[in-house]
UniProtKB/TrEMBL annotation:
Organism in which the protein naturally occurs: Nonomuraea angiospora
Transport is among the record's keywords: no
Phylogenetic lineage: Bacteria, Bacillati, Actinomycetota, Actinomycetes, Streptosporangiales
Name of the protein in question: Alpha-galactosidase
Coiled-coil intervals, chain numbering: none
GO molecular function: alpha-galactosidase activity
Amino acid sequence: MSFEDIGEIRCGPGEARVFEHGWQSWSPTGAYRLTDTPPRPADETIQILAYRPETPVPQGAFQGEGLLAVEPGDGSVELWSAPSPLQVPSIRAREEGGRLVISADGPVRHHRAEGGLDQALRDWADTMTEKRAFPAVPPMWCTWYGYWDKVTDADVIDNLQRSERLGLGADMFLIDDGYEAEIGDWLEGRPEFGSLARAVDAVTGAGRRAGIWTAPFLVGHRSRTFREHPDWLVRDAYAGRMWDQELAVLDVTNPAAVEHLVDVFRTFRAMGISHFKLDFIYAGALAGGRHEDLDPIAAYRRGLELIRRGAGADATLHGCGAPMLPSIGLVDVMRVSPDIAPTLQPKSGDISQPSQLGARLTGAAREFLHARWWVNDPDCIILRPEVEAREEWAAHLAGTGGLRGSSDPIAALDDWGLETTRRLMVPTATDPS
């Protein structure tokens, strides 16, 4: 759809701020002065991986995905937003002669509020979904930031034992990327990992919950799934490049692909896994030719419903790299920021990419979603000595109500890191932020 002007607002140039809400977990989100240059993708691949691919932002414009808010400088707040999680327009603001002209490529709701931006965002979030109770989620330990994709079953078991011995408090152990043979071949193990069953049995045998990582809507070009089932893929959908390979998209409207997807999660659940981190799931909302004529957001939501069918009604679904508004009501936990990293600044200069700075800025800007739409995941506690600005990262996490999860090799923590990690490892807050 093309953009149409839908309103305008007079602003004080030195006082006005525009709040851009990003499309998915990793998309930068925050409030900016009219003279600021908001974060934009460093290249075309990052546009696909971390922003909304179909609506790049023109130079000189502000843009929110499903939400754009303006503080003109007079104490009021004007918000333009999606009518529902099923229909998420891109909403723009451009400055013209002392006023901001608002445009959108789909239907929007308009709200006017008093009391400042923070309160207006909380009130708006309350209107987007029915109020529900979010129980406290215990803290976890995750393999990713300590072992990356070279993790082994012995690493999981070693850290399980250390957590128990040192009283770290981890209730769930999440086996992240690195156990699988290829992206898309989730039930085939990487030989160097060892035995997934052995790792899961050790966790559940210790009375802890087991979690697993997948990128369920991605199919890597090296995978057996890609080679043997081209009919399972969304036609002309390009999900970017990662893991040194091109990425295709699983078609969740193809009956055979549906059976495969449900079976993957049913199999994991039968192993004793109850927490499912669903990563890179922006792919499920990419445009392309599907077996059934379904719009991308509807296809994405159907994909999450199929995962729930396989994982079970009582499983924990944990979104990441996920379109934000389209996930409302379908995930229990949601990453609300880019990935943390041992470095303060992102290597590309683009804060959608892994860094402490990007995780802090976007995570803080989305704190208002916690216990309203889901349990926020601000990303993991990493506090080993080589982590830059680790004191600042610990302070950021202490100020959030969301999921706490250590991801250091526990043996690598010094006294300060271990003591601080132990202090941060508490259940999630049950009241909205």
